[in-house]
Amino acid sequence: VVCDVDGTLVGPHDHATTGVATAVTAAQRAGVRVGIATGRMATATAPLRTQLGTLGPDVVFNGGAVVADRTTVASWSLTPSQIDGLLDLARARDDVYLEVYPDTGFLVSSWDERARPHWELLGVEPTGRHNDGCFMAVFKVDAFRPLAEFKKDVGDFIRYLKDTPPAEGSSGVLYPGEVEHMKEMDRRANGIEVEDATWYKLK
Asked: What global pTM score does this model have?
């Protein structure tokens, strides 16, 4: 028996209910192998398979691959050049966002936080080949000017920014890195939230 995942084995949560788990266990004890069929990548099904103890085979990637005994026995994959071409095409357009699922992880055409609910559903974040327009440079400040003087100027500039009247509806002006710093302080004090899919992987 091959079952759909979203809306069948699981509802609003990442894990199956006790009733579903009991039914799957009973079926397999009766000699019926239970597998899953889903559009998710194979690795994203691991927490559910672990919870239910399904024997498979599983159909993943919207029919792009068949997995049995944790081994891909059949697949209909895009070539690396085809994947690169699709990602390049998507990146050239402002109205297209593309996700591609290779054997492990997944690739995106751009880092779009609007897709985060889907990433959380999959249980992983994109692993590469995206272009979010980020440039990073690192400088040895004291090779150009006294470090103490630089730190004073940075402090003065931050005070200037924080004294700037915020726009209507804004809670205040933030300097680069301040949001991340506040998140770090909050997580040090209150802990880091771990989604259900990751907890199941750790069990």
From this structure: 0.49
